[in-house]
Automatic annotation (TrEMBL):
PANTHER family registered for this protein in UniProt: GLYCOGEN PHOSPHORYLASE
Pfam families: DUF3417, Phosphorylase
The keyword Plastid belongs to this UniProt entry's keyword annotation: no
Alphabetized UniProt keyword annotations: Allosteric enzyme
Name assigned to this protein: Unannotated protein
Catalytic activity from the UniProt record: [(1->4)-alpha-D-glucosyl](n) + phosphate = [(1->4)-alpha-D-glucosyl](n-1) + alpha-D-glucose 1-phosphate
Limits of the DUF3417 domain: 13-104
SUPFAM superfamilies with a match to the protein in the record: UDP-Glycosyltransferase/glycogen phosphorylase
InterPro entries the record matches: Agluc_phsphrylas (IPR011834), Glyco_trans_35 (IPR000811), Glycogen/Maltodextrin_Phosph (IPR052182), Glycogen_phosphorylase_DUF3417 (IPR024517)
Length: 660
C-alpha cells in the first residue's frame, strides 16, 4: 500500500462514518474505534470528526495496514449491498426526538431512545420506513452536578460533522401570521433515511430561526411552533422529496399537527368539511401514546392555539372552533385547553399504548374520546445489537446462534444450557468498564465482583428515584454489610424546568456524598447512551420503582435484562406482562397512597434485597455471582429475550398497522 491509496480509501471511510450503522455493526464499530485511536480524538468522537483529524502520519499507518484496509473495503461492500436491498418508503415515522447514538444529541430520554431503536430495528428487518423529526442546533443539555445540584449547558451542533446531508430542499410551514422556512437534512440509519427539519436559515427572522434551537426548551408557544414545523413542515417535506406514505405513524402527540396538512390535502381532494377529511385520513394514520402521566401530554391554551392555527383554517375554508373541539378532553376541566393526545385520538384511525397495562390504562384515561376505547398495545422493545455488550454478543452468537438479536424463541431457549464460567467470562469486561466509569466520574472505586444494582433514567417524580432513601438507616446497613457487599449506581437527568425532579436528584447526590453510603452508592452525571450502555453492562440487578401504573413501558429494564441484569421492579409497564416469578423480582404494590405507599413499598424492596437477592447472589459464599444466580439469569434470558427486542416490536407494528 502507499499514500496514493488515501484518495481511494477516504471516500469509503466517509461513507461508513456518515451512516449510523457503525453504531451497531460490530466490524464497522471496531474500525471506528481504531480510527479514533489513530486520530487521537475523544473515545466517543463522531467518526467524521476522527477522520478529519487524521494527519499524514496516521493516514500512512492506515493505508499500510493491509488488514485494516481489508476491513474498510469489506465494511463498505457490506453497507453498499445492504442499501441496495432497501425498499421504497411507505411508512413515515414522525417523532420530536431520535436517540440514534450518543454522538448525535437529538434525544432527551426514553421517547427518543425508543424512536432510535425503532429505526435501527426497521433497518435490520428491511421495513419500508423513514423517520421525520427536527434538527436541534443545540441538541439536549449536557448535565453537570455542582454541590449536588444539576446545572445545564448547551453546545452548538454542526449537522455536516454529524453525518447529515443537505437535501437542497427548503419547505414552508405556517406559524399564524408568519411563515417559517425549514431546510431538510438527511441522516442515514442503516437502510432507513431520517429527515430532520432545521429553521436556522438566514431567510428566517431571528425568532423563527430559534424554533429548532433546543429540544424541550422554552415556553408553550415555543413548543407549539416546533410542533407546527414538525407536523405541517414534515408532511410538506415528504411531498417535496417525492415520497407518498401509506401510513403516518405519530410517535406521541408532539407530532400530531401533521393531521392539519393531511386535512388540507383531503379537502383539496374533494372532502367537503373536517368530518369528511378525517374519514379520508384515518386509514393512513396511527397514533402511539407513550404516557399515562398528564404532565407528559401537551396542552396548549385555546387562545394560543387559535392565534397560530386560525389563519391556516381561514386560508383552507375551515372552522377553527370545530378544529379546537377535536382537542378537548373532558377531564382537563372547563378551560378546555387544546389537548394533543385527545386531538390525535380524534383524528387517527388506529392507536396503541406501549405495553399491555398501558393500553388498558389509556383506554380508561381516554374513554371519552372516539378512538379511546379501541386503543390497543404494542409493547416496546430495544435494539439488541446497540445495547448488549460486545462480549455477550460474542457469547450469544457462538453458543446460541446469531438470530437471538431478532428475538428467535428457539435460539433463546438454549440459554439455560450456558456454562456459568462462560457467562462470568463474558460479564467481566463490562463489570470493569463500569468500575472505570465510576472511578473517573466520581473518584469512588467500586468492587467489580460485588452485587451491583443500577437505577438510571429520567428523574421524573413518578419514577421515584428517592424511594430507596425512604429508610436511610436500613439502606446504610445494607451498604455497610462486610460479608455480602451491595453497591448502587444511579444516573439520570431532570428536565430543566422540573424543580421537583431536580430536588430528587439533589437528594440522591447528597446521600452519595454522605458517610452513610460507605462509598458504595454513587451518582454518575451527564447520563447519555454511552453511559447507559456501560451501566447496563456492569449491573447485576436493575431497579425500577415507579408509582403504578404511571410507567407506560420502561425500556431500561429490557436493556438490562439482555445484558444479564435481573429486574427488581414494581409490576408496571413491560414488566407487568413479562414477569413470571423467576426471571426477576416483583416489588409488591401497596394499596395505600402518598408517603404511606412509599414507605410500604420501600420496606418491601429492602426485604427483597436482604432476604432474597443478596443471599442468592452470594450463595454459597461471598466473592462473586453464584452458579444459582447465573442459572436464574439464563432462565430470564430464555423467557425475556424473545419478547424485549425491538425486532419483535417493529414486526408487530408492520403486521398489525403498517401494511395496507
Amino acid at each position: 500500500m502507499s499514500a496514493h491509496d488515501r484518495p481511494r480509501l477516504e471516500p469509503l471511510l466517509l461513507d461508513l462514518g456518515r451512516n449510523y450503522r457503525w453504531g451497531w455493526h460490530k466490524p464497522t464499530r471496531r474500525l471506528v474505534d481504531q480510527i479514533r485511536a489513530l486520530a487521537g480524538t475523544e473515545p466517543n468522537a463522531h467518526p467524521l470528526v476522527a477522520i478529519a483529524a487524521l494527519d499524514h502520519t496516521a493516514w500512512s499507518a492506515l493505508v499500510d495496514d493491509r488488514a485494516t484496509v481489508a476491513v474498510i473495503e469489506d465494511a463498505h461492500a457490506s453497507l453498499t449491498a445492504e442499501l441496495a436491498t432497501a425498499p421504497p418508503r411507505v411508512t413515515a415515522y414522525f417523532s420530536p426526538e431520535f436517540g440514534i447514538n450518543e454522538s448525535l444529541p437529538q434525544y432527551s430520554g426514553g421517547l427518543g431512545i425508543l424512536a432510535g431503536d425503532h429505526l435501527k430495528a426497521a433497518s435490520d428487518e428491511n421495513l419500508p420506513l423513514l423517520g421525520m423529526g427536527l434538527f436541534y442546533r443545540e441538541g439536549f443539555f449536557q448535565q453537570s452536578v455542582v454541590n449536588g445540584r444539576q446545572t445545564e449547558r448547551y453546545q452548538q451542533q454542526d449537522p455536516v460533522m454529524l453525518g447529515a446531508t443537505d437535501t437542497g430542499i427548503i419547505v414552508d410551514a405556517p406559524l399564524g401570521s408568519v411563515t417559517a422556512q425549514a431546510k431538510i437534512w438527511r441522516i442515514d440509519v442503516g437502510r432507513i433515511p431520517l429527515y430532520l427539519l432545521d429553521t436556522d436559515l438566514e431567510s428566517n427572522t431571528a425568532a423563527v430561526r430559534s424554533i429548532t434551537d433546543r429540544l424541550y426548551s422554552g415556553d408553550q408557544e415555543h413548543r407549539l411552533r416546533q410542533e407546527l414545523v414538525l407536523g405541517i413542515g414534515g408532511v410538506r417535506a415528504l411531498e417535496a422529496l417525492g415520497i407518498a406514505p401509506t401510513c403516518f405513524h405519530l410517535n406521541e402527540g408532539h407530532a400530531g399537527l401533521l393531521v392539519l396538512e393531511l386535512i388540507k390535502r383531503a379537502r383539496r381532494a374533494g372532502a367537503e368539511n373536517i368530518t369528511a377529511a378525517l374519514e379520508h385520513i384515518r386509514p393512513i394514520t396511527l397514533f402511539t401514546t407513550h404516557t399515562p402521566v398528564p404532565a407528559g401530554i401537551d396542552r396548549f391554551p385555546r387562545e394560543l392555539f387559535t392565534r397560530y392555527v386560525e389563519p391556516w383554517a381561514t386560508a383552507n375554508d375551515l372552522d377553527c372552533d370545530e378544529l379546537l373541539e377535536l382537542g378537548v378532553l373532558a377531564s382537563d376541566g372547563p378551560v378546555k385547553p387544546f389537548n394533543m393526545a385527545a386531538f390525535c385520538l380524534s383524528a387517527a384511525g388506529r392507536a396503541n399504548g406501549v405495553s399491555k397495562l398501558h393500553g388498558a390504562v389509556s383506554r380508561e384515561m381516554f374513554a371519552a374520546v372516539p378512538l379511546g376505547p379501541r386503543i390497543s398495545s404494542v409493547t416496546n422493545g430495544v435494539h439488541a445489537r446497540t445495547w448488549v455488550s460486545d462480549e455477550l454478543q460474542e457469547l450469544f452468537d457462538t453458543e446460541l446462534g446469531t438470530s437471538w438479536s431478532e428475538g428467535d424463541a428457539a435460539t433463546w431457549a438454549k440459554a439455560p444450557a450456558l456454562a456459568p464460567a462462560l457467562v462470568r467470562a463474558a460479564w467481566q469486561p463490562g463489570r470493569h468498564r463500569l468500575v472505570d466509569l465510576v472511578s473517573s466520574a466520581t473518584g469512588t472505586t467500586l468492587d467489580p465482583d460485588a452485587l451491583t444494582i443500577g437505577f438510571a433514567r429520567r428523574f421524573a417524580t413518578y419514577k421515584r428515584a428517592g424511594l430507596l432513601l425512604t429508610d436511610r438507616k436500613r439502606l446504610a446497613a445494607l451498604l455497610a454489610d462486610p460479608t455480602r457487599p451491595m453497591q448502587f449506581v444511579f444516573a439520570g437527568k431532570a428536565h430543566p424546568a422540573d424543580n421537583d425532579g431536580k430536588a430528587l436528584l439533589a437528594m440522591v447526590n447528597e446521600f452519595a456524598a454522605s458517610t452513610e453510603s460507605s462509598s458504595r452508592f454513587v451518582f454518575v452525571q451527564n447520563y447519555d447512551i454511552d453511559i447507559a450502555r456501560t451501566i447496563y453492562g456492569g449491573c447485576d440487578v436493575w431497579l425500577n420503582n415507579p408509582i403504578r401504573p404511571m410507567e407506560a413501558c420502561g425500556t431500561s429494564g429490557e436493556k438490562a435484562a439482555l445484558n444479564g441484569g435481573l429486574n427488581c421492579s414494581i409490576r408496571d409497564g413491560w414488566w407487568d406482562e413479562m414477569t413470571d416469578g423467576r426471571n426477576g423480582w416483583d416489588i409488591p404494590t401497596s394499596e395505600l397512597d402518598g408517603a404511606e405507599r412509599d414507605a410500604e413499598e420501600a420496606a418491601s424492596l429492602y426485604t427483597l434485597l436482604e432476604s432474597e437477592i443478596a443471599p442468592l447472589f452470594y450463595e454459597p459464599s461471598a466473592g462473586r455471582a453464584s452458579d444459582a444466580w447465573i442459572a436464574r439469569v439464563c432462565d430470564a434470558w430464555s423467557t425475556l429475550g424473545p419478547q424485549v427486542v425491538a425486532a419483535r416490536m417493529v414486526r408487530d407494528y408492520d403486521t398489525r398497522y403498517y401494511r395496507p
